[in-house]
Design brief:
This is Histidine kinase/HSP90-like ATPase domain-containing protein. One of its GO terms (cellular component) is membrane. GO terms for molecular function: phosphorelay sensor kinase activity; protein dimerization activity. Strands 1, 2, 3, 24, 25, 26, 27, 28, 29 and 30 form a ten-stranded antiparallel β-sheet that branches. The protein has six domains: 168 residues, no CATH class; 86 residues; 228 residues, Methylamine Dehydrogenase, Chain H (7 Propeller); 102 residues, Immunoglobulins (Immunoglobulin-like, Sandwich), CATH 2.60.40; 95 residues; 130 residues, Heat Shock Protein 90, CATH 3.30.565. The chain is an alpha+beta fold. Helix 3 packs antiparallel against helix 4, helix 5 packs parallel to helix 6 and helix 6 runs antiparallel to helix 8. It is built from eight helices and 74 strands.
Length: 1007
């Protein structure tokens, strides 16, 4: 068998695959050098978990819902990516004292078995029970290891020193299994049949069965070796090598992947036929293929130790979503990494260890040119993974420290660059010599960006305007409109980027908005904050632009995210941190061959599918050395690769390898919920152990708070959630933004269905949606019976008030009738006798007596006034009919003797219609005064018309004669003022005006 080593480099991180044993020291030196280089280049792929990193973790497990369980020195916890929930909160009866937890296992009923210093326990839902162990019962005993056998479902338990028990999958008490050694069995592993392998802390190996006990294997390894199930001859795995059992019971090394001696406390993770662990800064993966006796070994960098720490072994656990977790039982910390090749590859630089990049392009000779702060870097044309090397630059015979802000390789092979603090220039790639282009005018110009359009014209953007570059003459010219040679409004703006669009158009992203320019005609369109709705943008501070094939533009802004702008229609779509962007500053934007967008931001790289509107965020967990990417540091290569630069260097992205469909869709979980009551001492958080309940908000509940989670734990802070509430007035999907907590408050009484959906940071929707019923109970005074009772009580009160008012009205009417009767019978009769006596006395006098005439006249007037007063008080006259009778009587007594023909017109009034006494009395007195004035003062009048009408809530009285007025004083004296006062008391209006054909008095009051 030949000795050889095969090295395989995967897309994002080097992985070394070895097939046979190698002994040569020279080969091991080569391996060590390659491993050191790989660790330096790609160690950033592993990231510490912000929450679990502070624990000393012994084992991790995952339940069927996707939540993680952690056994640590600090206790037993459930983890949802955001919060650690201690066992005491999940099972209130558990209490405390579950520290020094060593082992976890789930049985066939999905119950959690856990071992700690207090003994063996089983959790089912929220019920925790302690299980008796053979020989010790319920006494506190340290559990060393737990194993659920994949074939039988039996639970094997190692506890104390030299004690082993097995619990049947069907239940019942545990049975003791004798061990051939007295020290603790530190590791259990299933054998090919129903037996298990047990390895002690002193490295002895035993084969154990439930029925026949156990037997000690004859070999005595120096370090801890773990048997591989189903191998013949038997294989044993150590930290650094694989050993094979010989017929005489000795061991022979068959495969070595790292230098060193096998160590104790070896804890590999086992998922099916794959074993994996971390040692000496490397992730070691052993995978047994069917039909092969020896495994395939893969090594990839996983440097966890800080400077000065001793190397430690780390167990590796892979969850259901393809995420690796690495922990050490002797070191606090927890690291995670996504399984599989990544799409982002960081490019190293020599001798620079860290560099910040700006301009990127491919030189005519095939080399990759990168403009970095402090140097210009190149990569060989035939080595896409080779380190970048400095390119010496020369200007005027001296070394140049030029910093390329943008670089353009023209279709003719010339290389033009823009430098922020200098004019445009040309680069000779062969010699590194720089030549500056002549700028018009003496004012300093900062060259910012370059673009070559479809016609071959090279355009340059500056802080002084748009320029056309003439490379043949070595000069630049300011662009002006072809028709009138007027400059464009760019004198005080910075043109950040120029892109060519279909139809000969140019899109220009500036510090004062977005411009669309047609250079051949000079036509210019502006999109910004000051424009009308069809051209309005939420900001003028733009950083980059990309022209879509349909003529639209994707625009990156400084503070408003990513914008989609269509000519003539303006803003169509906006993406911000509320919709998944890691930052509202979008520095660069490119499109790949499939039309998907790739945007460099100050907090990560964004992949966006415009058709499906699916967004994914890549950061350090995906291969970026630093998530902050730079402006104008993006370039699309002819082979479809995308290059993005940032403060952490240059990265190569191959969009074809970024396939969201290859990732496992996470599950959306409701981790817990809290009902906040009006009394703070009754607030309690419920941690779910099964299906979500029916949520009921009682009147005393202030609001309901739901804690959501996705089973993709790599970057939980990037997960996004949306919800809608069916049954409410607004059934739209509402984003939660950057939070995973949903609070329901201010809901009206009723039944609702809450729907929640989630998307991972990689843009992968959850495989399920949550549909949760919510019932909001009405407070007692909002219940139907309370409304009916309240309506009945209000009706009773109103009816009582109405009855009281009617009684008061009746009393007043009786009082008015009695007063009217008394006045009529007593005072009226007395005035009538006085008038009759005065009439008799005048008849007996032979000569006229003025005093007697005045007495007779006054007595008659007093009798008439008394009749008016009695009529005004009498409750029996509170109707329209009584008023009309009184008005007719007065017309007969006053107008007829004056020789006036009268007519009374009535409209919209019935005789039985009630009239308030105050309205009836004032209305009659105004009528009486108007008729009396007409009878006395209407010179040459022959007719008097009176109209009383009701229309649209108003009562109108009209008194009109056809005479000629005798003067203003006659018709506007004391009588006029009295009528005006009465009209004001009624809340109406009164007019009295001379007309061409007579005099008209008009009264209008509400009724």
């Amino acid at each position: 068998m030949g000795h050889y080593m095969r090295v395989l480099l995967l897309p994002s991180q080097p992985v070394f695959t070895m097939s046979v044993r190698a002994h040569s020291s020279l080969r091991w030196l080569l391996v060590a050098w390659l491993l050191a280089w790989a660790t330096q280049a790609q160690a950033q792929a592993w990231q510490p978990d912000a929450v679990l990193h502070r624990l000393l973790i012994h084992q991790m497990a995952q339940d069927r819902t996707g939540l993680l369980w952690v056994a640590a020195d600090e206790g037993v916890f459930r983890y949802d990516g955001y919060d650690l929930v201690p066992l005491a909160a999940l099972a209130p009866a558990a209490g405390s004292g579950f520290d020094h937890a060593q082992a976890l296992a789930f049985d066939s009923e999905h119950r959690l078995w856990l071992g700690c210093a207090r003994g063996l326990f089983r959790l089912h839902g929220t019920r925790l029970e302690q299980l008796a162990l053979p020989k010790v019962g319920h006494r506190p005993t340290q559990i060393n290891a737990l194993l659920r056998h994949p074939r039988t479902g039996a639970l094997w338990v190692s506890y104390g020193d030299g004690l082993l028990a097995v619990f049947s999958a069907l239940g019942g008490a545990g049975r003791s299994v004798a061990l051939p050694f007295s020290d603790a069995a530190a590791w259990l592993s299933p054998a090919a049949d129903s037996a298990v392998w047990a390895v002690s802390a002193m490295h002895r190996v035993a084969y154990c069965t439930a029925a026949q006990g156990s037997r000690l294997q004859p070999y005595q390894p120096l370090g801890q070796l773990l048997p591989v199930p189903g191998t013949h001859p038997q294989l044993l795995v150590g930290t650094y090598a694989l050993h094979e059992e010989q017929p005489d019971g000795t061991l022979r090394e068959r495969l070595r992947w790292l230098p060193g001696a096998d160590e104790p406390n070896f804890r590999p993770g086992q998922q099916g036929n794959t074993w994996q662990w971390v040692a000496a800064g490397q992730l070691v993966q052993l995978q047994w293929e069917p039909g092969h006796h020896l495994p395939q070994v893969q090594l990839s960098p996983a440097a966890f130790e800080r400077a000065g720490q001793l190397p430690r072994q780390y167990a590796v656990f892979t969850d259901a979503n393809g995420l690796r977790w690495s922990t050490s039982s002797g070191q606090r910390g927890c690291y995670k990494q996504r399984v599989g090749a990544e799409s982002v590859e960081a490019l190293a630089s020599r001798p620079l260890r860290r560099y910040s990049t700006r301009a990127i392009t491919r030189l005519p000779d095939g080399r990759l040119l990168v403009g970095a702060y402090g140097a210009a870097l190149v990569q060989p044309a035939d080595s896409p993974r080779a380190a970048l090397r400095p390119l010496p630059l020369w200007e005027d015979g001296r070394p140049s420290a030029a910093i390329f802000l943008d670089v353009l390789r023209t279709r003719s092979g010339q290389v033009v660059f823009a430098e922020e603090n200098h004019p445009f220039g040309q680069l000779d790639p062969a010699t590194g010599r720089l030549r500056r282009l002549a700028m018009p005018g003496a004012t300093f110009t900062s060259s910012l960006c370059l673009q070559q359009d479809a016609a071959g014209t090279v355009w340059g953007g500056t802080n002084r305007g748009l320029f056309r570059l003439d490379l043949a003459d070595g000069r630049v010219q300011l662009y002006t409109r072809p028709a009138d040679a007027t400059p464009l409004p760019f004198a005080q703006q910075e043109i950040q980027e120029i892109v060519s669009a279909p139809g000969g158009w140019l899109w220009l992203a500036t510090s004062s908005g977005l411009y669309r320019l047609h250079p051949a005609t000079g036509r210019l369109e502006h999109y910004g904050t000051s424009e009308p709705a069809s051209h309005r943008l939420p900001t003028d501070a733009l950083l980059c632009v990309w022209a879509a094939a349909d003529g639209a533009a994707w625009v990156g802004t400084r503070d408003q995210g990513l914008l989609l702008v269509r000519p003539g229609r303006g803003l169509i779509r906006q993406l911000t941190t509320a919709t998944g962007l890691p930052s509202n500053t979008v520095a660069t934007v490119l499109a790949d061959a499939s039309g998907d967008l790739w945007c460099g931001t100050y907090a990560g790289l964004v992949h966006y599918n415009p058709l499906r509107q699916r967004l994914a965020v890549l950061n350090e967990t995906d291969g970026l050395t630093d998530a902050e990417l730079n402006r104008q540091s993006a370039w699309r290569a002819p082979d479809g690769s995308l290059y993005f630069g940032g403060v952490g260097g240059l990265h190569r992205v191959r969009p074809g390898q970024f396939a969201v469909s290859t990732l496992r869709a996470p599950r959306l979980l409701l981790a817990s919920y809290t009902q906040h009551h009006s009394r703070t001492d009754t607030v309690r958080t419920h941690f779910l152990a099964g299906a979500a309940p029916l949520f009921t908000l009682a009147p005393a509940d202030a609001f309901l708070e739901l804690n959501l989670a996705l089973t993709d734990f790599l970057a939980p802070e990037q997960a996004r959630f949306e919800y809608r509430l069916l049954g409410s007035s607004d059934t739209r999907w509402n984003p939660l933004g950057s939070t995973h907590v949903l609070a329901l408050r201010g809901l009206l009484a009723g039944r609702y269905q809450l729907e929640v959906r989630g998307v991972s940071g990689r843009g992968l929707p959850a495989q399920n949606q949550l549909r949760l019923p919510v019932v909001v109970e009405a407070v007692w005074w909002r219940q139907p019976w309370a409304w009916l009772l309240g309506a009945a009580a209000a009706g009773a009160v109103l009816y009582g008030l109405h009855r009281r008012r009617l009684a008061r009205v009746r009393r007043e009417e009786r009082l008015r009738s009695r007063i009217a009767a008394d006045l009529h019978d007593e005072v009226g009769t007395l005035l009538t006798r006085v008038s009759l006596q005065a009439e008799l006395l005048r008849q007996t006098q032979p000569e006229a007596n003025p005093t007697l005439e005045r007495l007779l006249s006054n007595s008659r007037q007093a009798a008439g006034t008394m009749r008016d007063i009695v009529w005004g008080i009498d409750a029996a006259a509170d109707s329209v009919g009584a008023l009309l009778d009184r008005m007719r009587d007065h017309l007969d007594q006053t107008a007829a003797p004056a020789g006036l023909a009268t007519e009374l017109h009535v409209r919209g009034l019935r005789d039985a219609l009630p009239l308030p006494p105050e309205l009836r009395q004032h209305l009659y007195l105004i009528f009486k005064e108007a008729v009396s004035n007409a009878a006395r003062h209407a010179r040459g009048a022959s007719r008097l018309d009176v109209t009383l009408a009701r229309e649209s809530g108003w009562l109108t009285l009209l008194v009109a004669d056809d005479g000629q007025p005798t003067g203003t004083a006659t018709r506007s004296g004391m009588g006029r003022r009295n009528m005006q006062q009465r009209a004001d008391l009624l809340g109406g209006t009164l007019t009295a005006d001379a007309q061409p054909q007579g005099f008209v008095v008009r009264l209008r009051v509400p009724f």
